[in-house]
Amino acid sequence: MVTTFKAHFDGKALIPDEPVTLPKDKPLQVSIIVKQLKRKPKTEKKAKRRAIWELGKNPVRLGIPDASENHDKYIYTGF
């Protein structure tokens, strides 16, 4: 029987990212494959830096009157 699922390691144990059905009290063999995160294209990074610069330049002109109070929201989640 082969079961494949996504998980993450919290420093002590593997935590499944989704419900998993495994036999209880049975020996298991575990293989680990570390997935590489995909890098964002440079053009997307440049666009985000430009948006951050524009936000600091004049957020009201961009239609964001609450930018000074919620700047983290706009920087990390977008507009």
Describe it for me?
It is built from 2 helices and 2 strands. It has a domain of 36 residues. Strand 1 and strand 2 form a beta hairpin. Helix content is 29%, strand content 8%. The mean pLDDT is 77. Strands 1-2 form a two-stranded antiparallel ribbon. It is α+β, with helices and mostly antiparallel strands and 79 residues long. The radius of gyration is 22 Å and the shape is elongated.
Per DSSP E runs of 2 or more residues, the count of β-strands stands at 2
- Beta-strand level of the residues, as a percent range? 5-15%
Order of helices and strands: EEHH
How many DSSP helices? Answer: 2
Poorly predicted runs: none
Cα gyration radius (Å): 22 Å
- How would you describe the shape? elongated
Query: What gap, in angstroms, lies between the N and C termini?
Result: 47 Å
Mean model confidence by pLDDT: 77
* Biggest beta-sheet profile: 2 strands, antiparallel
Helical/strand content category: alpha+beta
